[in-house]
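Q: How do we represent a protein-ligand complex in a form that can be generated token by token?
A: Start from the inputs.
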Amino acid sequence: MSDATRVCRAAILISGGGTNLQAFINAVAAGTLELDIALVLSNKSEAYGLERAKKAGITTACIDHTAFSDREAFDRAMAEQIDEANIDLIVLAGFMRILSPYFVRHYEGRVLNIHPALLPKYPGLDTHRRVLEAGDSEHGSTVHFVTDELDGGPRILAGRLQVRDGETPDELMHRVQSLEHVIYPRAAQLFATGRIRFEDGKTLLDGTHLPEPLIDDF
Ligand code: GRF
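Then emit the structure tokens for the protein with 5-O-phosphono-beta-D-ribofuranosylamine bound:
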């Protein structure tokens, strides 16, 4: 952001329940996240996250992806709304659509995602079951910049926990979700205050290349 006095304006993209969105709303209210959540955008009209946004007085929009002939046409419609709202940061929070190269390029270095695994391990779906099947002792979630590579962009911050004996995928999922609610607003705050940025396909922290993500242990 060029104007240091301006509060970072964010669009949060959702498809579902929006517990991460709620964590952002709470962090802004608590003053630990200096962000103006200017828009919450969903591709599903029934997404409960839309209710959470409305309760918090945030502008919402819904664009049904099934109304578009292809991925890029849908992404262009989203970009129109996002650009109208003068957005600095896009936060993917349970947004279940793959973004087109057009969208990723248009907002290069300004889109964050959270993926429920210790990336680069387990990109893709069903991570909790895969972690348990592999017998891993550690698991967690990772905030990263979005690039063309699915779940593969430069990492910023990971939350890590120890897998418990006999834990089910569901129990693990709940523990990972709880830590996401801490690390995702924290990563967004690093972006909003200009400490984290994306340059040449890499994450910079305070101007220095961050080859491995910051780690919070839970
Ligand atoms: C999170 O677990 C996140 O890791 C994944 O989608 C889930 C979204 O949950 N990308 P919610 O809608 O924020 O509750």
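The radius of gyration is 17 Å. Residues 115-141+157-218 form a domain with the Rossmann fold fold (CATH 3.40.50.170).
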